[in-house]
Amino acid sequence: MAVAPKVVHDATTAFPQSCGGRASTPIQLPYMDSLDWAAGVLEGEGSFCAVPAYNPELKVGSIQCGMTDPEILHRLQRVLGAGHVYGPYQSRSTSKPCWIYRVARQDDVVRIAWKLFPFMGCRRKVRRS
Predict the structure, then answer these.
(1) Contact 74, 114 (CB under 8 A)
(2) 101: closest CA among 61, 71, 125, 60?
(3) Which among 18, 41, 70, 97 has most CB atoms closer than 10 A?
(4) pTM score, whole prediction
(5) Where are the domains positioned within the chain?
(6) What pLDDT, in 10s, does the model give residues 36-83?
């Protein structure tokens, strides 16, 4: 009976290992540094906020995402080219520390929102319109 190869993941590569335990050549996973990956992370774990400013014709917005894994947030920052990662903060709901990725500069928020729009699900697209 054949045993399926074990796959070990790090941040951006997968290492299929044979039954004998020898690692083969790493397989690059390019989607982990792409806009569709970033859209999926933000759609699942993030939020897009817009609140009316003093002038009702203007919107003040932000994008943010909180996680217990800062590496994912730093990758998100690199892919989107904006924002900051803050933390660690102690979460009340878990014993793990958490970090927050936030984009608050308005031109960055608008640029990122338009870049990610084609990759977002229908529910998010309706909310953002």
Answers:
(1) no
(2) 71
(3) 41
(4) 0.67
(5) 1-30, 34-128
(6) 899 999 999 999 887 766 666 666 789 999 999 999 999 999 999 999
